[in-house]
Design goal:
Elements lengths: L8 E4 L6 H31 L6 H18 L2 H7 L6 E3 H34 L4 H4 L2 H27 L8 E2 L6 H7 L5 H32 L5 H29 L8 H23 L2 H18 L1
Parallel strand pairs: 1-3
Antiparallel strand pairs: 1-2
Helix pairs in contact: 1-2, 1-3, 1-10, 1-11, 2-4, 2-10, 4-6, 4-8, 4-9, 6-8, 8-9, 9-10
Length: about 300
């Protein structure tokens, strides 16, 4: 016997109901999305085509750029399209697909950022054994585990929501189908499911963030015995990674490490980690990395030569 619900579609309130603000949001988010896709694809192409960027760190960075492109694409296009219309609707099946896709890719990114921190830990704390530990086989295996972990995390979220009966209001106070807004629409007691959501999303975010913080404490302690140049280079790469971690994890922990309820600030948080952070990642990594910038310059020269 299926879960009873008589709702075939949901209506989204979006970020604003003011037509003037909606037009501004359309332009802003369209620019952000174009910059996100172009920036991340440029990093991906640069790393895959450059022989000087063959280390595990850049292998993981290329995967992060691909995930950021996919993650932004699971949220931004619908947000951009909805900014043009007053009637924002999404089918029940489309809502479930968006929920699964966003949590799948978000979960993959969370785990990948933790893997990247481990890579930096090995590179800085065990430099002589780095190439022996971080083999190509291990790197591919770790990336595969990130995708599997993201899939399992999202599958649990989807199964929790599919158990909910929707038989009343269908207006979602958000611009995306997410767990807490959907829990508020369910015509049943969602206290237990809310706790499971915290256990699945919130605890995963918090534990990974604590693991990342602990790894950087160990790295900083190990840098005391290094020379000035070694400290500068290590802090440059680690600083970029920690900036990305803070931008992504802090809003996630705030959103999911609390009892199930929808706050007005949740929309801003979702924009931050779902739309802005994927755009900022390529800027953060390239502006502080001379190897990536030099590889990009060579790539542009090759394109100009081929075009001329």
């Amino acid at each position: 016997m299926g879960i009873p619900h008589n709702i075939t579609e949901f209506s989204m309130l979006g970020l604003s109901q003011n037509p003037e603000i909606q037009r501004v949001l359309f332009v802003v988010f369209l620019i952000i999305y174009v910059v996100t896709v172009c920036g991340n694809m440029l990093i991906l192409v640069t790393i895959t085509s450059s022989s000087t960027l063959a280390s595990p760190m850049y292998f993981f960075l290329a995967n992060l750029s691909f995930i950021d492109t996919c993650y932004s694409s699971s949220l931004a296009p619908k947000l951009i399209a909805d900014s043009l219309y007053e009637g924002r609707t999404i089918s029940y099946e489309g809502c479930m697909a968006q929920l699964f896709g966003a949590h799948f890719l978000g979960g993959v990114e969370i785990i990948l950022l933790t893997v990247m921190a481990y890579d930096r830990y090995v590179a800085i704390c065990k430099p002589l054994r780095y190439t022996l530990i971080m083999t190509r086989h291990l790197c591919v295996l770790l990336v595969g585990m990130t995708w599997l972990g993201g899939f399992l995390h999202s599958l649990v979220q989807l199964l929790l929501v599919l158990q909910l009966p929707f038989c009343g209001p269908n207006v979602i106070n958000h611009f995306v189908c997410d767990l807490y807004p959907l829990l508020e629409l369910a015509c049943t007691n969602t206290y237990v499911i809310g706790l499971l959501v915290v256990a699945n999303s919130g605890v995963i975010c918090l534990l990974n963030f604590l693991l990342l913080a602990a790894s950087y404490v160990v790295i900083l302690c190990s840098l005391r015995s290094r020379g000035a140049e070694g400290r500068r280079k290590a802090l440059s790469t680690c600083g970029a990674h920690f900036t990305v971690v803070a931008l992504f994890f802090v809003p996630c922990v705030f959103t999911y490490m609390r009892p199930s309820s929808t706050l007005s600030v949740d929309k801003n948080m979702a924009v931050f980690y779902g739309v802005l952070t994927p755009m900022l990642n390529p800027l953060i990594y390239t502006l502080r990395n001379e190897e990536v910038k030099n590889a990009m310059k060579k790539l542009f020269i090759q394109w100009e030569t081929a075009g001329g």
